[in-house]
Amino acid sequence: STSLLWASQSLISPNLTAIATDLHLSPSQRDWLLGGIIPLAFFAVGAPVALLTGTLADRLATNRVRLLVLTTALGHVPSLFAFVVRDFAGLLVLRTLTGAALAGATPINMSLLSDYLGAVTRVIAVACLGVTVTLGVASGTVIATFLSERFGSWRLPLAVVAGPALVVSGLVWMLVDEPPRGKMDSRDAADEINVVTITRSDSDQGFFEQLPSNDNSQLESQAFSQKVRAVFSVRTNVLCIAQGLAGCLPDGIVNTYMVDFFAFDKKLGIRNATILSVVGLLGVLVGMLVGGGIGQALYNRGWKMRLVQLTALAVASTALPFATIINIETTRVALFGGLAFVGGFLLGCSDPNIKVMVVNVNNHATRGTAFAFLTVATDLGKGLGPFGISVMIALLGRQAAFSVAMLMYIVCGMIIFFMSFSFEEDEEKARHYEAVRATELPQIYY
Predict the structure, then answer these.
(1) For residue 297, is it left (φ>0), alpha (ψ between -120 and 50) or beta?
(2) Cα–Cα distance between 29 and 37 in angstroms, integer?
(3) Which of 23, 253, 310, 321 ranks highest by number of CB atoms within 10 Å?
(4) Model pLDDT for residues 344-402, shown as the tens digit of each residue
(5) Rounded alpha-carbon distances, angstroms, from residue 237 to 43, 243, 244, 254
(6) Which string of DSSP letters, residue by residue, matches 101-150?
(7) 201-245: pLDDT as tens digits
(8) What angle (nearest 5°) sits at the alpha carbon of residue 246, between those of residues 243 and 252?
């Protein structure tokens, strides 16, 4: 279900020029409207949807599996109407609803995953979830390229992906069970409960402001403002969100412009450009598995500072291969492919580790809200990023704008590095919270 939803994200980018021609848009309108305004609409509508679904995912009364199905349906149903789109306004509405679903699904997925699995396996699990997302994006790119070349229609891929996706969503509704909330966190905290007496020290009062009394209805009715304060009182959350915002410009290039850039600026053609995009996504996939495996091993050994620092190095290093791709003067597809794979690999290494850091420093009652804000900063930053890039293109031209934006990966790496000074402390506070909850409200977990 998640993979097919993300496939729908990449159905447009291989055909930007074809869509512009069909809708009678000039090259400048292609970059501004298709590359800038549509991703901006992703952000404008998706941000509040992510905050809404994240908040709903934290409510005890919410069935998150069904919420996820309804959210993904919001993204797929509009794609069935692609054939009636005749102007940019119609395309904007269709893609905006898809963006809202993409944004809304992420906090729900992470909330569910954290209750299916404990801390000792979460990095691997998040990496596997990332792999499904990457496979979805890659398959969407391939489907869009193949069907548009074969049938001469950029609309057909949208409907082809939406139909099976709705069938899968129906199966998820019928077959997937809602996991008990906080049960895996209570197990992770069991040793702490059995070994020490859990008390709320004065230093923990700010962190435990969100704790209600032993009444589940009070826990469910926590005000959104309280959850926001709880999320932003955790330094690791603030730094994760900040690095997501810093990365929105280069991510916008990779997700929106790169296929078109390879095809027309580098004069490699749509087919080679699509192949290079898939190679880059393959690098992301391998990077997620390798980075997730290394991250889980470091975490389980207690080397948490090294985990954060390695993640920071991987993100900062991503700038080099992508900047080289943009500025190198060659038509050697193999060279571009090698650079795309390395860039994708480095980018993929960081993704599962950053997400698990957010999972582990937030308790089960605020995780959905925390991921809603991270989604706004990262996945939706990819929507705001292309809009910023479109403005930079108008001022600097494509190559200069892309080159400057790639330097922001170095800034992201620096921000992540500072998380090495806060992650362990924030995680310990979250574990302490779950230990208290397990002793005060054991019925929540079962």
Answers:
(1) alpha
(2) 10
(3) 253
(4) 999 999 988 998 899 889 887 788 888 888 877 876 556 677 778 888 888 888 889 99
(5) 20, 10, 11, 25
(6) HHHHHHHHHHHHHHHHS-HHHHHHHHHHHHHHHHHHHHHHHHHHHHHHHH
(7) 444 434 444 444 444 444 444 467 788 888 899 999 999 999 988
(8) 120
